[in-house]
């Protein structure tokens, strides 16, 4: 009965959780712990020799809309896990080392000091499932398609950052960017430009939405949307030693508990989760189960509109943060997740003690509010809340926390996702407060978008700070990761002073695997390297 | 045959009303499919472009007329969100729901008819009281809870059946039945409880009829009296309800689909609502409306076989 009760409670919440919000990470963890701290990071050490064979079945939480890279996000929680086996990846980003490694590429490097010229070299003898060559012309065709005026790609602005492409030989693309970017390779790893479709299929107008033609480690045999996707090993794959398993089966199960139960009952060999309690349950029921994951930083935040009262006043922003017991929010509302205490992820290269968030202090918060009320009158504001149960639960929690104080009143405005997104990203400041996630692995991408003043819409708090802009722009032109990290420290420290938004939890995106499944590794914001999975006999 | 043709004609205005109402309701929903297509990082010029490509700026009457004229030619369009053909989506998903609905009804009727008949025969006795009490208990438990209880016992504890997933019939009937067993039993539980009580009530009255008493007096067996003499005249309500329920089960099992990871029509329709994917929504609702109306038509026609007086008196 206890099991049923637990399943029921978790099921109701987890079913409503939806996507991971494109959350991103700064650490790869393949140990047994679900800790989000980058300090606890271990990398996979394959002590046994991988063997070929078997079918690995992995349960995912949601279906993808389509399989055409042009219409995909490349995010690990949503479609990256389907794109990788089908299309492979040019590069994979390791959030711990903060560097990209070539996979289907032989190398991807800047060739000038200003980081405007880049050379992408591909590994030889790679081909698409339609038999055509995976070559420089294919890269150019895909990236031009993404940059076209009528392109619906979320990656369009990145593709349009490329001023020109030349192909000195069949395996080389020389790029010139419109402006220098020291981590353009990381940017590619983060989005759909990393996934290349057959140019012949594009020209022939093949239905890539349903029948993808890629050159990845697996080829799709069957896809029953909302049911399962079956893929077979691609015998032509040469970019890594794998794939080891003969077949890869993705099963869609939106109910978190059913995914956990499915692994325990032997239906699945692994499952996706961003919920720490699911990892704990799965590891309790499955001895020596592993969790290959990425700790997420800035994946879940509350955003203040810094151009609109009352949040145009730092005292109110600070008071609200001080009034919310983040540890209780993380434990009771967010299923035992880890509360965030800093802007930067502890243990990461860009971590700084000075990026700490204000601690919970209701009395201190009341003092700040009293000060503000004396000058400008009582504080009332509206929170833009999404329809998902979890978003409503955390909004109500905050409303209740603020109700304990005098002089401040929060209203909730629950709206449809599309309407809310439109309000938040319009750049017009049509909201006061909302929950939001910043897709970040490399700060050059997510942190830049979230905080640079030249990013209306992408910077929903309308944050504008010259020190931050300068640090972000300088970091973009630094080739040395350590030097870049110093610049990002400046940004995080300034954020801790200005508080335009605040992270409230550290979550993890990852995959729990049974003990006999080896080679569990994720890249980017939690995309599983399914080419490296194998079964220990 | 004339009655059948007439009833078929009556379906046309009903279908028009249903699709128009769905179209209007979709329009009143908040949100915009373009945001689901492009995601939060979309720029205003991209949004405008996609709206134009999808013809979303056209006035509502024009879009409805265009949809109806395409649908009449068998073209239900493409999903605004995925670009996938709506007809193909429905063809892929409908078998899941049809199989669940038909197997659920078969199982429910197979269990409920003897249960209800015997309860009526033993009205007021211990067996009847036990069945009635259990039925009320089962009806009080919502299907999603029954599903989780069954998963906990049958899948988790006993490891007899899979807790989630789907295998099409084409990939092996045995595997297909293994995966569909728990969803079918979950849904059938409530139906069994309702059907058995309904039949019990109707049959208890029929058993008091003179001709039944005469049959008993002639020394005919209980089985013959219950199944041959009393069942047919007692089954009007049961057939009506089973028909209505069959329609409901085809499209109304979304929670069960979600819990058991079934790629059914309910999931497709409920995902289309918040996304304002009106082509999928319209196609799905149209299909369900046709199925619902045809099933009810068949139920109406079946009355004439159950009671020839209906045929005679029109």
From TrEMBL, chain A:
Listed PROSITE patterns: PROKAR_LIPOPROTEIN
Domain Solute-binding protein family: 102-455
GO cellular component: ATP-binding cassette (ABC) transporter complex; periplasmic space
Molecular function (Gene Ontology), one example: peptide transmembrane transporter activity
InterPro entries: Peptide/Ni-bd, SBP_5, SBP_5_dom
GO biological process, one term: peptide transport
UniProt xrefs under Pfam families: SBP_bac_5
Protein name from the UniProt record: Unannotated protein
Organism per entry: freshwater metagenome
Automatic annotation (TrEMBL), chain B:
A Pfam family annotated for this UniProt entry: BPD_transp_1_N
Location in the cell: Cell membrane
GO cellular component term, pick one: plasma membrane
Keywords: Cell membrane, Membrane, Transmembrane, Transmembrane helix, Transport
SUPFAM superfamilies xref list: MetI-like
Membrane-protein topology: Multi-pass membrane protein
Keyword Acyltransferase: no
UniProt name for this protein: Unannotated protein
Species per Swiss-Prot/TrEMBL record: freshwater metagenome
Main subcellular location: membrane
Keyword presence, Transmembrane: yes
Any Gene Ontology biological process: transmembrane transport
Residue ranges constituting the ABC transmembrane type-1 domain according to the UniProt record: 94-299
Transmembrane regions listed in the UniProt entry: 7-26, 100-121, 133-156, 176-195, 236-256, 285-306
């Amino acid at each position: 009965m206890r099991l049923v009760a637990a399943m029921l409670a978790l099921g109701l919440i987890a079913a409503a959780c939806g996507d991971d919000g494109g959350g991103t990470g700064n650490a790869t963890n393949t140990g047994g712990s679900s800790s989000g701290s980058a300090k606890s990071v271990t990398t996979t050490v394959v002590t046994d020799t991988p063997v070929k064979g078997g079918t690995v079945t992995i349960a995912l939480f949601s279906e993808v809309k389509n399989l055409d890279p042009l219409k995909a996000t490349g995010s690990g929680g949503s479609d990256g896990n389907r794109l990788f086996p089908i299309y492979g990846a040019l590069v994979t980003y390791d959030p711990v080392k903060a560097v990209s490694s070539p996979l289907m590429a032989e190398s991807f490097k800047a060739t000038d000091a200003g980081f405007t010229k880049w050379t992408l070299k591909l590994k030889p003898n790679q081909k698409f499932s339609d038999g055509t060559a995976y070559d420089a012309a294919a890269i150019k065709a895909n990236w031009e398609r993404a940059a076209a005026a009528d392109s619906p790609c979320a990656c369009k602005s990145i593709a349009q950052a490329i001023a020109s492409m030349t192909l000195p030989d069949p395996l080389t693309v020389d790029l010139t960017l419109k402006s220098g970017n020291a981590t353009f390779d990381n940017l590619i790893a983060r989005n759909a430009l990393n996934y290349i479709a057959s140019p012949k299929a594009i020209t022939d107008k093949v239905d890539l939405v349903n029948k993808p033609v890629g050159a990845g480690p697996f080829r799709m045999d069957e896809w029953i949307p909302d049911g399962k996707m079956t893929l077979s090993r691609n015998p032509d794959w040469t970019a890594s030693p794998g794939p080891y398993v003969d077949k890869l089966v993705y099963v869609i199960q939106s109910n978190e508990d059913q995914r956990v139960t499915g692994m325990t009952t032997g239906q699945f060999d692994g499952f996706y989760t961003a919920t720490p309690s699911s990892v704990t349950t799965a590891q309790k029921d499955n001895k020596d189960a592993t969790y290959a994951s990425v700790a997420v930083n800035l994946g879940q935040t509350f955003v203040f509109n810094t151009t609109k009262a009352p949040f145009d006043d730092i005292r109110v922003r600070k008071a609200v943060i001080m009034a919310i017991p983040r540890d209780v929010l993380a434990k009771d509302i967010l299923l035992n997740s880890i509360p965030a205490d800093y802007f930067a992820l502890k243990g990461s290269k860009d971590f700084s003690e000075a990026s700490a968030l204000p601690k919970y202090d209701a009395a201190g918060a009341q003092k700040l509010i009293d000060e503000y009320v004396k000058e400008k009158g009582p504080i009332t504001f509206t929170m833009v809340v999404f329809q998902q149960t979890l978003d409503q639960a955390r909004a109500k929690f905050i409303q209740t926390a603020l109700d304990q104080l005098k002089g401040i009143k929060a209203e909730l405005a629950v709206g449809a996702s599309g309407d809310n997104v439109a309000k938040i990203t319009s750049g017009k400041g049509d909201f006061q407060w909302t929950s939001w996630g910043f897709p970040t692995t490399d700060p050059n991408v997510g942190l830049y978008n979230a905080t640079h003043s030249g990013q209306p819409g992408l910077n929903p708090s309308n944050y504008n700070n010259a020190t931050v802009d300068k640090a972000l722009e300088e970091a973009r032109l630094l080739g040395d990761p350590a030097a870049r990290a110093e610049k990002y420290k400046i940004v995080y420290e300034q954020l801790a002073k200005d508080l335009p938004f605040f992270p409230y939890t550290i979550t993890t995106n990852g995959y729990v695997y049974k003990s006999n499944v080896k080679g569990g590794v994720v890249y980017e914001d939690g995309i599983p390297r399914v080419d490296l999975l194998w079964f220990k006999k | 045959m004339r009655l059948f043709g007439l009833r078929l004609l009556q379906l046309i205005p009903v279908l028009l009303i249903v699709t128009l109402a769905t179209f209007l309701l979709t329009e009143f929903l908040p949100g915009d499919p373009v945001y689901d297509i492009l995601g939060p990082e979309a720029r205003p010029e991209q949004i405008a472009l996609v709206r134009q490509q999808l013809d979303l700026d056209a006035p509502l009457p024009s879009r409805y007329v265009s949809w109806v004229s395409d649908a009449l030619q068998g073209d239900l369009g493409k999903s605004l969100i995925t670009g996938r053909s709506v007809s193909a989506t429905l063809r892929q998903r409908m078998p899941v729901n049809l199989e669940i609905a038909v197997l659920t009804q078969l199982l429910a009727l197979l269990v409920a008819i003897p249960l209800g008949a015997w309860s009526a025969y033993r009205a007021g006795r211990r067996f009847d009281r036990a069945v009635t009490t259990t039925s009320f208990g089962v009806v009080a438990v919502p299907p999603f809870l029954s599903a989780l209880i069954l998963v906990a016992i049958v899948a988790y504890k006993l490891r007899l059946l899979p807790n989630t997933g789907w295998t099409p019939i084409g990939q092996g009937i045995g595997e297909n039945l293994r995966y569909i067993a728990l969803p079918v039993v979950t849904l059938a539980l409530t139906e069994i409880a309702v059907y058995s009580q309904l039949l019990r009530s109707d049959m208890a009255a029929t058993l008091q009829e003179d001709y039944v008493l005469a049959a008993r007096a002639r020394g005919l067996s209980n089985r013959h009296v219950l199944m041959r003499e009393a069942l047919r005249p007692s089954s009007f309500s049961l057939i009506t309800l089973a028909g209505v329920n069959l329609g409901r089960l085809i499209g109304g099992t979304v929670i069960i689909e979600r819990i058991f990871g079934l790629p059914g029509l309910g999931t497709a329709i409920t995902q289309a609502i918040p996304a304002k994917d009106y082509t999928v929504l319209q196609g799905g609702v149209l299909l369900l409306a046709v199925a619902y109306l045809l099933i009810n038509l068949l139920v109406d026609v079946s009355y004439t076989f159950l009671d020839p007086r209906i045929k005679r008196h029109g």
